Predict the 3D structure of the following.
Amino acid sequence: MSDIEIAQQAKIRPVIGLAKERLGIDAEHLDPYGHYKAKLSLDYIDSLKDKPDGKLVLVTAISPTPAGEGKTTTTVGLGDALNRLGKKAMICLREPALGPCFGVKGGAAGGGYSQVVPMEDINLHFTGDFHAIGVAHNLLSAMIDNHIHQGNALDLDLRQIQWKRVIDMNDRALRDIVVSLGGTANGFPRQDGFDIIAASEVMAILCLSSSLKELKERLGNILVGYTRGDKRPVFARELNAHGAMAALLKDALRPNLVQTLENNPVFVHGGPFANIAHGCNTVIATKSALKLADIVVTEAGFGADLGAEKFIDIKCRKAGLKPDAVVLVATVRALKSHGGVPVKELTTENLAALDAGFANLARHLSNVQDQFGLPCVVAINHFVSDTDAEIALLKRKVEETGAKAVICKHWAEGGKGAEELAREVLAILDSGKSSFQFLYDENAPLWDKIKAIATRIYGAADIAADIKARQQLAQLSEEYSHFPVCIAKTQSSFSNDPNLKGAPSGHILSIREVRPSHGAEFVVVVCGSMMTMPGLPKVPAAEKIDIDEHGRITGLF
């Protein structure tokens, strides 16, 4: 059966009863959205603050390929397996965005028998968090143009507006537009554009905020532009926009509780992209889960070079989190892709390509263990096309690095298929071997932070920036040097070039643009041709999604 067919046949438990039985949460602390999803109250979350924290396990992966790696599926499978072994475990995931759901990537609720349900709801509108974030973002956009139209008392420079608009859809036609055409009644024409909601600073702010007070303060700190005369920065609080924005986000800040196919509790909350933003679920969901469970399994987006690095250097740094173990997901198919095999030939045994592509896994593994000081186990997400010889080769090469590789069959078997992985994770947690460290010092210059990521994580020889980017860095260095950096680049390679597979070394990381996320408190570094508004592929996934006269959805994956 397809993923959606499996999900539609699941025996889902009412979320109110599940929360009470599994987490001890009374119904009064939950606002249900139907029978199978609910939001947790902020007052209840605050009541947990004196409880001890559980252990935190991060699931990350090799560099993504069209073959798929199954990071979310592995996260779900591991969480189910830990519960099968008698542990009180909880899972924390990001919310899927509609853009990739209808584009190339598809949804993000797991796959096979390791899924989070209700799958259709999670992958489509869910509890409306993305809508709230988009409306809050666009309210500020509207208030900026209205302020200019009503006399521009703050003297905003129309050429220096930093705040775009957003939409939860991949639409390349909206990347660069002109607004306020049609006469004086519509305002002053200026160049503008759209980003996807997952790239919005409001999304990043929501995901990094631990309370409504912090959320409102961060929203007020959003940099919207500069004045004409003295180039003074202008913030959202000067437009009195942050209060209304926070009001729109009041419920969106509350974690969403759902369940796996095996009826284990999951928080699905927040959805920043890992190649554009910091790629983690919300701080408030992760911290709440750590109070409610003995072990929390969470994921970071795309490969470890993007997801794990930002999880550690941005989310953990800001939230005071400390991971205890890492699971690095890989597949035989994906490694053969990194070894140069075309997608159509990935089901054919090819030991030479697997051996060549292993370099990608080896670098990610080294980064996790050596750069961040975290103990790591490799999860080989099993496909039916994997041969015994390929699996034996991959396990041997992992073991030669000093790490351990575990074959996982959770896609086909659910939590049962990931029990060996769960036992290995428990062994790591019991060993206490973690010597966690950040990649760079908080007070290092921005240039040095970027270079540290490029050279130590990406294998680059150096970084380069054109005159415009260097000027931006120079302008930002005084005020923002203590901020972490969030590098926006392709997820498909350690380099700027998405076609450069494996583990390229000696390349130059080219910086195209640098901009501050003043409210989120990090600096975005845009590299190569990375877009903050993706486009749809030649054959979008939307063409396969349908609904029948009974309301049954098909084609969603």
Q: What stands out?
A: The mean pLDDT is 95. The longest strand covers residues 508-517.
